[in-house]
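In this supplementary section we document a worked example of the pipeline. Step one takes a protein sequence of length 671 as its only input; no multiple sequence alignment statistics are reported here. Step two produces a three-dimensional model, which step three serialises into structure tokens for compact storage. The input and output of this example are shown verbatim.
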Amino acid sequence: MDLQSSLAALKGLGPKSAEKFQKLGIFTIEDLLLYYPFRYEDFKSKSIFDLLDGEKAVVTGTVVTPANVQYYGFKRNRLSFKVKQGEAVVAVSFFNQPYLQDKIELGSEIAIFGKWDQAKSALTGMKVLAQVQDDMQPVYHVAQGISQAALVKAIKSAIDAGMAAKLSENLPQFLLERYRLMGREAAVLAMHFPKDLSDYQQALRRIKFEELFYFQLHLQLLKAQNKSETNGLAILYDESALNEQIKALPFPLTRAQQSALADILADMQSGSHMNRLLQGDVGSGKTVVASLAMYAAYTAGLQSALMVPTEILAEQHYDSLRQFFPDLSIALLTSGMKTAVRRSALQAIADGSVDMIVGTHALIQEGVDYHRLGLVITDEQHRFGVKQRRQFREKGENPDVLMMTATPIPRTLAITAFGEMDVSLIDELPAGRKPIVTRWVKHEQLEKVLSWMKEQIAAGGQVYVISPLIEESESLDLKNAVDLEHELAAYFGEAARIALMHGRMKTDEKERIMTAFKDRQVDILVSTTVIEVGVNVPNATIIMIMDADRFGLSQLHQLRGRVGRGDKQSYAVLVANPKTDSGKNRMRIMTETLDGFLLAEEDLKMRGSGEIFGTRQSGIPEFKTADLVEDYPILEEARKVAADIVSQPNWQKDPRWHVLLGNLKKSDHFD
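The serialised model returned by step three reads:
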């Protein structure tokens, strides 16, 4: 019997039992040993004076009153008695467990696991323990047909058979010594059956480091491979022409823009593949930096392409590039173009008479041939997958690829989600931008807000009103977009032209409404969150978000960024009556800061990475034990060590690292 044997080989488990464990992803004895509990019940008895309200704990004492059962309603009852601990007497209740009455004897010592109610000085019992225990019990994720007891029994059987001793050490000795980490066998044993809390904490620290270290080693290898690819283009741009272009801008570049541009230009010149993410908060001036990179490619005799998610964004970027570079030939390519216009654009792209191309995913469709494509920029990176980026590379002679996103990604996540990329950050806003004033109001104050809005519209302003739902939902008491439009129309009458836009509309219909808003033919645009990404309407100065507590901080910040794009003072009004502390906190934080990265960090703490990005879509890995926010210091340390190892010449041939390469191939994060 070895680690790769089926569970059926273990004492007390047959083939049928072993098959049930497959629901948990446990196929071999090794899988079983590495299936860790997600928490522990600490069955060490506590003094009631140390308990916090709502805390689950074990309380021991002497039974001082007989146990009584009261019945009320069908199959509903309460078992009550009192326990004395030292000088204190505690009331204990068990609901719907009348059979426990026989276990509770007057004058006997008892140990009860339950939930403490501070106000009533009482314990709601969950379990009567057989005897006063002094240990920690693991709690595992289980599936139908597998109980906690069955899982613990199987793990004990594997350990009793000496299988944990067969787990080879997968971290180099110098790391164990440097970070004072437990050995692997001891750590696995202590993850399941720790001697005490300290033993478990040491084991958990070791297992988390191991998991994050192998993940980072994989990313650093990918990064090194990208760097060593010499089949990229060395774009030898004209520095003096580019500097003239920068001087001609109507505004100076910020320090952060200069730094990001320098990173990008260095990548373009290097001859290695560019694999860079340009992160910048809403309104930070990413587009200017991207435009200058495109201009640099033009001075080297190469074409550049900018791909964005929607046609309206493509038109917006096309217009701004034509303003920046009136002397260059710039083409727009979208699937909604008329056939003749599209045909002549394709011809110009293929024969090289076009210098820059802006478009949607139409840019990578069949039939689009580039003359000499040197640089590709994708805006809102998480909307374009790896496949689309590869298609772009195949369109040219392996062009450099720059990805841009306005979603502020906390450093914690950037280092994992985009860890194989280099990240440039634009973390300051251009001078002269007026900060957006953010106010939180309750539904009862709406009348006052609408009256103020009427004055703003009369003075020429435009307004976004955001609603979280399209249709009535019985479970959520929300204003839906359709009702909202009717209510606003009734309130404003002739004083405002109102349009409605939502996600169920066809793309061309949404774009028609958005264009009408941009052209100031609409005063109030009632919309669901479909306006979230990048659309630029400088005249829109107010955004009112209904039931704002239903949105996460990152989403609220993205929505707020739809205003404040001109030189007028802009406002974000959050309408919400949050019932939870978390909802109230989100509203408070939104009114206190405009820093998207700070908000993204807070969002991450409150909601977790999966909810911000959608774990599958963003490629953020799931870890068995590690938590990206909580364990950020371990993640950062693991990154440094992995980067040090990978940066050593011929490290893969060094016998010290053979253990790493073998285990890397087996790790969850290696593909």
